[in-house]
Structure formats: structure tokens, C-alpha cells
Amino acid sequence: MVSTGSSPAPPFGTASPVTDEIATFALADLSRDPGWRQPVIVEQELLILTTRGHGDAELDFHLLPCRPGTLLRVRPGQVLRCVGPQFDATVVSWEPEALRGFDIDADAPVTWRQLAGEDEDAVITEVSQLAVDCQRHPDSRTARALLRHQLAVLLLRLALASADRSEPRPEEETFHRFCREVEHGYPRTRRVEDYALGLRCSVRTLTRACLAVTGRSAKQIIDERVALQAGRLLAATDQPIAEIGRQLGFTEPTNFGRFFTREVGVSPGAFRAARLQPAAGRVVRPRPPAEPTGANGGRFRPGALGEPANGGHSGRPGSPAGPARGTGRA
After folding, report:
1. Domain boundaries, the chain
2. Which residue range or ranges hold the HTH araC/xylS-type domain (predicted)?
3. Above 50 in pLDDT, residue 164?
4. What confidence tier does 92 reach under pLDDT thresholds 50, 70, 90?
């Protein structure tokens, strides 16, 4: 349990003698800036459990309220900033190799969840024990096995709590396959035809699946993912705007500027300037775990400063979803 402010933290969870394959540490350790003036790009799989106090976590431009029992699932590549009043949290991080050999869907836990009752008690107990064991045991084969099994139990418990017991429709399966392909391919191509070829289906099939699940076309899904990545890099790095555009496949800065303005509603420069202003501390209620056809069709919009942005496409709905130069990374 660790603090974003100056209050003392309990002795466990601040360092780990065991290999960083699995670790627990301070929430404040995710940012070099105690004030979190700039978001950081997360580089590991994370669970963040709020244990005391109240505050906000801005994850991929969604402002999520945090209080005791709030659990955040943060994925590599997302941008995170913690704002508002002081609150304490335990962070669990792991590398994908830690779950090798376990039949676990690490993406099952939703992005934001307010735990309560027996679920909260069980998760707090397991996270606390994991933090204690990270601190107590020197690196060894036995210690690594213990931590891997503890992490597996924690993720399985969260997966059970988040499980959707209904059978997925064929359109949903096609849509999620498409999302996985987009996640790997968006820096290289924004053509629906390329993804259809890789998935061995027609453009019409992809578009029909996307419309059925999200109300948006396949091309919109791709463009929203590109715009989300652009927003991440603009907010959390000091890379020149033209360089960000080149990374995302735009040979001309003007083309990138027009694309971003069309998708987000403001220019890349204006978006970056707004994100560097001090963040508002007002708690904003997030949307509940949403169907993919959520408000505004899930389009990525930055929103007013301090308001929850309507974040872009992510691989999994559920939120109220080469090293860069000068980047803030966790």
C-alpha cells in the first residue's frame, strides 16, 4: 500500500527482492513527477487497488474516480495520470511470461471496478499477501513459483467476477479477432482490405460485425485506434508532432494534422497543450462497464479539461479499455 502524497506507506510493497517478473510497488513510483503533471505510458501489465482516500485516475483520457476498493486494470501502452486528492494504492505489475502455463485470460478483468463485500475482502487479502511475499522472499525458483501461482489465483478470481456467461455471437467473435489484428497492424495500415485478407474474410463481413457490436464501421474502428495512439504520444511524450505522424504512417504532417483534427475535434498541437495544463481534481462518475455501443459510439474525444474524455477503441470495453524520445514511461 503506497501513497500519491507524503503520508507514510506501510513497509511492504515498496521494493521487491524477487525478480521484476512480478512486483508490487508504490503508485507514486509510476511517475517521476510527484504532481503527475504529465501522463505516463505504462510498459507493464498492472493492477492498481485503491486502499485509502479518494482521488482520480485518468486512464487513456477517461477520468475514473478511485476510493477504497476501486480496482483498475491497466495494460501496456495505455497512458495513466493520477490527479486530485491524495489516495493510497497497491500496484501489482507482471510480465506476460509470468502466466505461461496457466489457463488464464489476463484481459478478463474489466478496466474499472468498484469491489465490495466478499469480493473486496478476497482481493485485498490476495494483493496484500502478494506484496508481502514479493518483499520477504529472495529470488529463487520456489519464490517465483509462489508469486506466479498467487498472481494466477488473483486474476482467476477477478475473471470469475467479470465473467459474461452468455454465449458470444458470431459477430462478436469476428469483431474481437479484428480488434486483435488492428492492435498489431494499425501502425502499418489503415486499409480494411488488409485486415480482411489476414482474417480470411470479406470487407463486408468485417464491417457488418463492427456495426453489429459497436454501431461503427470497420474503417472507423481502425481510425479511432490510430487517433488514440496519436493522443497517447502527444500527451505523454515530447516527440515532435511530425514524428508522431510518421510513426503512424503519415508521410506528410499536414495529412496527420487533418486526420487527427477530424477524429478528435482539435489539432494535435491544441490537444498536447491542453493535456499539459494542471489537471482538475473534481471526481467525475465514470460510465459503468459499457456495451461496445456506449455513449457517442465509443469515439475518441478529448473532452473539456478535467472531464472524462470519450476514449477511443480499446481491445476490451469495460471502463466507466521503439522507446520514444523524452517520454514519461512507467
Report:
1. 2-162, 170-298
2. 176-274
3. yes
4. very high
Architecture of domain 170-298 in this structure: Orthogonal Bundle (1.10)
Reported confidence tier of residue 306, pLDDT bands at 50, 70, 90? very low
Q: How far apart are CA 63 and CA 114, in angstroms?
A: 15
Three-state secondary structure along the chain? CEECCCCCCCCCCCCCCCCCCEEEEEHHHHCCCCCCCCCEECCCEEEEEEEEECEEEEECCEEEEECCCEEEEECCCCEEEEECCCEEEEEEEECHHHHCCCCCCCCCCCCEEECCHHHHHHHHHHHHHHHHHHHHCCCCHHHHHHHHHHHHHHHHHHHHHHCCCCCCCHHHHHHHHHHHHHHHHCCCCCCHHHHHHHHCCCHHHHHHHHHHHHCCCHHHHHHHHHHHHHHHHHHHCCCCHHHHHHHCCCCCHHHHHHHHHHHHCCCHHHHHHHHCCCCCCCCCCCCCCCCCCCHHHHCCECCCCCCCCECCCCCCCCCCCCCCCCCCEC
What are the pLDDT digits (tens) for 27-72?
Answer: 888 888 888 888 999 999 999 999 888 899 999 999 999 999 999 9
CATH 3.10.450.50 corresponds to the domain 2-162: no
Tell whether the model's pLDDT for residue 158 goes beyond 70: yes
